[in-house]
């Protein structure tokens, strides 16, 4: 891990309960999502193109919602159409990760729509674990790869 | 693609004598059976053209048999340098004391001939050196270029004679060949014999392809492709090369498998962030929704009788394994241990479900009974998943990935197999990196 990476990387630890009425029910688990700026590109000045997720989660934390509000404002004002690409890290089974990436992309789509973006200007695609942005096998890389990226449609 | 179509004519001419030597494959075999495989001898060398001679069948055909039997972990094949008797006499009139001297308990001999029609005739005999008897024999005809299949069929015959169960050597593996950096991985469908020979690529790598699975007869493959950036399930006819998309779904379809009768494809369809399980009848195109739950339902796999389905769902909050009736009723969670469970696959024998387990940052391949009891973890690693059963339900093939260091250096993917006893873990050599293996049924069935 380079010094720059360390500086830009903050792990936010969220204590959450697993929703489970089963053998593992009630167990506490620590999850992490990336809050740094490495790998982030911009749709326009001040409009980051991606949000990050905790392990196995598709819920949006407050920082992600800020980013998406900026995206929504930009999409509406510029009239562009976008593709939201959902991704997972490499620490899950391939098929489940495809579903998880789709769930993450839709979580973003739903939020953009709640901010007034029309359904017809958003399509979603899941890449599961197939297109990591950081090829390393480290906690940092995995947190950067658990993402949904909004790109201008061609 | 005509190469995939060829006929082998069987002629069984003596199955005699009681089994004296046997192998118990239900336990880990710590003492493989000492075996001698003599070179085959050529009966009519004058009929062997230069091209056929180049195949060096008298050595290569027994060598493929040797490789098969050794890799099964059940046989220890003694180096042929130790053999005393020459190949011709070994086949016609073995001197059993010579074979016992080098501690071989069984001996395989064979004869090659080109017949009047230009076909290759291979005759093999299996000898029990202790009781001094022939215990199996078989003669096969094929075009000389199909000699590898003959070697596999003979290997299956030997395996069956000594274990009492069908073999798995006359089979193929379809998998995803990988190349390029991890962030822009190029993936192609590839097919090879179970021993890694006769590798062929079925797609060019222009689009991402994932999770190919054989139809029960081995003629079709269902897989997922990002063709035109629309991730969908496809059908590919291996013989004709014709591909078609499965159904008309307004979103991603993935995780496909065939039903045991080969008539349906079962898969996941994702819409608005939710994945449910669907089937499509290949002939009528009729689509049926099997699960309807706001959680992720994926990785479905039919029981061999077609009456049940096992699948992966996070409806409890985390990934677990479930079973249900083929119509979607009677959903039961069967995975009970701590950790996450994925990729359930029903054994062709019907008795077990193989799975991937993720626990404390490690990945395991394991098996459990179909009610979830008797969980056994076979192998632990940094990353491995996606087991696929050998047709006799004794061996699992899966893929394993190594960790990527700085810039992804050192990252790789390879195919491995392991017996369900937990023994005999072996890496399967492939030309490129490889993942998502699927094992065909026996081709000669």
Tell me the layout of helices and strands.
The complex is a heterodimer of chains A (154) and B (445).
Chain A: H1 3-8, E1 11-17, E2 28-34, E3 42-44, E4 47-48, E5 50-52, H2 62-78, E6 82-87, H3 94-114, E7 122-128, H4 139-145, E8 147-152
Parallel strand pairs in A: 6-7
Antiparallel strand pairs in A: 1-2, 3-4, 5-8, 6-8
Chain B: E1 9-14, E2 33-37, E3 41-42, H1 50-54, H2 57-71, E4 75-77, H3 87-92, H4 96-101, E5 106-114, E6 120-128, E7 133-142, H5 147-163, E8 172-179, E9 186-193, E10 200-201, E11 209-214, E12 220-225, E13 232-237, E14 243-245, E15 253-258, E16 264-271, E17 274-281, E18 287-289, E19 297-302, E20 308-313, E21 320-325, E22 332-333, E23 340-346, E24 352-359, E25 362-369, E26 376-381, E27 384-389, E28 395-402, E29 412-419, E30 426-428, E31 433-439
Parallel strand pairs in B: 2-4, 2-5, 3-5
Antiparallel strand pairs in B: 1-7, 5-6, 6-7, 8-9, 8-31, 9-10, 11-12, 12-13, 13-14, 15-16, 16-17, 17-18, 19-20, 20-21, 21-22, 23-24, 24-25, 25-26, 27-28, 28-29, 29-30
Write a structural description.
The complex is a heterodimer of chains A (154) and B (445). Chain A is of the alpha+beta class and 154 residues long. Chain A has a single domain (37-152), classed as 60s Ribosomal Protein L30, Chain: A. In chain A, 33% of the residues lie in helices and 27% in strands. Chain A has 4 helices and 8 strands, in the order H-E-E-E-E-E-H-E-H-E-H-E. Chain A has helices spanning 3-8, 62-78, 94-114, 139-145, and strands at residues 11-17, 28-34, 42-44, 47-48, 50-52, 82-87, 122-128, 147-152. In chain A, the strands form 3 sheets. In chain A, strands 5-8-6-7 form a 4-stranded mixed sheet. Chain A has a two-stranded antiparallel sheet with strand order 1-2. In chain A, helix 2 packs across helix 3. The radius of gyration of chain A is 16 Å and the shape is globular. Mean pLDDT of chain A is 85; it is low at 1-30. Chain B is mainly beta and 445 residues long. Chain B folds into 2 domains: 2-163, TolB, N-terminal domain (Rossmann fold); 172-439, Neuraminidase (6 Propeller). Chain B is built from 5 helices and 31 strands. Chain B has helices at residues 50-54, 57-71, 87-92, 96-101, 147-163, and strands spanning 9-14, 33-37, 41-42, 75-77, 106-114, 120-128, 133-142, 172-179, 186-193, 200-201, 209-214, 220-225, 232-237, 243-245, 253-258, 264-271, 274-281, 287-289, 297-302, 308-313, 320-325, 332-333, 340-346, 352-359, 362-369, 376-381, 384-389, 395-402, 412-419, 426-428, 433-439. In chain B, a hairpin with a 6-residue loop joins strand 20 and strand 21. Residues 1-19 of chain B have low confidence and may be disordered. The chains are: A alpha+beta (154), B mainly beta (445).
């Amino acid at each position: 891990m380079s010094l720059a990476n360390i500086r830009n990387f903050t792990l936010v630890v969220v204590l959450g309960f697993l929703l489970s009425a089963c053998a593992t029910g009630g167990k506490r688990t620590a999850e992490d999502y990336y809050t740094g700026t490495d790998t982030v590109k911009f749709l326009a000045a001040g409009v980051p193109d991606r949000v990050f997720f905790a392990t196995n989660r598709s819920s949006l934390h407050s920082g992600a919602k800020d980013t998406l509000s900026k995206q929504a404002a930009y999409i509406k004002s510029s009239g562009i159409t976008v593709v939201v690409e959902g991704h997972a890290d490499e620490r899950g089974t391939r098929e489940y990760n495809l579903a998880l990436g789709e769930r993450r992309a839709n979580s973003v789509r739903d939020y953009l729509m709640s901010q007034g973006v029309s359904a017809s200007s958003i399509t979603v695609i899941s890449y599961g674990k197939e297109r990591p942005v950081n090829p390393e096998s480290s906690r940092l890389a995995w947190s950067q790869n658990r993402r949904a990226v909004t790109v201008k449609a061609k | 693609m005509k190469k995939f179509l060829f006929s082998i004519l069987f002629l069984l001419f003596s199955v005699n004598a009681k089994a004296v030597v046997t192998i118990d494959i239900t336990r880990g075999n710590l003492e493989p059976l000492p075996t001698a495989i003599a070179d085959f001898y050529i009966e009519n060398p004058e009929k062997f053209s230069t091209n056929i001679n180049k195949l060096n069948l008298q050595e290569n055909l027994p060598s493929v048999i040797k490789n098969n039997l050794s890799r099964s972990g059940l046989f220890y094949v003694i180096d042929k340098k130790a053999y005393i008797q020459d190949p011709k006499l070994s086949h016609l009139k073995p001197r059993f004391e010579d074979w016992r001297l080098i501690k071989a308990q069984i001996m395989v001999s064979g004869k090659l001939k080109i017949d009047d029609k230009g076909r290759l005739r291979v005759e093999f005999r299996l000898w029990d050196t202790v009781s001094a008897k022939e215990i199996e024999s078989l003669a096969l005809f094929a075009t000389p270029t199909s000699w590898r299949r003959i070697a596999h069929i003979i290997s299956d015959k030997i395996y069956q004679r000594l274990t009492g169960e069908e073999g798995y050597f006359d089979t193929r593996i379809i998998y995803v060949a990988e190349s390029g950096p991890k962030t822009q991985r190029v993936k192609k469908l590839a097919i090879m014999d179970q021993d890694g020979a006769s590798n062929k690529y079925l797609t060019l790598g222009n689009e991402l392809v994932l999770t190919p699975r054989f139809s029960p007869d081995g003629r079709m493959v269902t897989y997922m492709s990002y063709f035109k950036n629309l991730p969908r399930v496809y059908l590919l006819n291996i013989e004709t090369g014709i591909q078609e998309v499965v159904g008309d779904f307004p979103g991603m379809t993935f995780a496909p498998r065939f039903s045991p009768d080969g008539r349906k494809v079962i898969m996941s369809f994702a819409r608005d962030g939710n994945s449910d399980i669907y089937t499509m009848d290949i002939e009528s195109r009729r689509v049926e929704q099997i699960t309807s739950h706001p959680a992720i339902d994926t990785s479905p796999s039919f029981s061999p009788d077609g009456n049940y389905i096992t699948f992966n769902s996070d409806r409890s909050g985390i990934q677990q394994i479930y079973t249900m009736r083929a119509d979607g009723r009677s959903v039961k969670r069967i995975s009970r241990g701590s950790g996450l469970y994925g990729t359930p696959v029903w054994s062709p024998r019907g008795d077990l479900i193989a799975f991937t387990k993720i626990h404390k940052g490690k990945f395991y391949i394991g098996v459990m009974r179909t009610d979830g009891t008797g969980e056994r973890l076979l192998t632990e690693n940094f990353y491995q998943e996606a087991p696929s059963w050998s047709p006799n339900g004794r061996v699992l093939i899966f893929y394993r990935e190594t960790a990527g260091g700085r810039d992804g250096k050192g990252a790789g993917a390879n195919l491995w197999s392991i017996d369900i006893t937990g023994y005999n873990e072996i890496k399967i050599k492939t030309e490129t990196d490889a993942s998502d293996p699927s094992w065909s049924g026996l081709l000669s069935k």
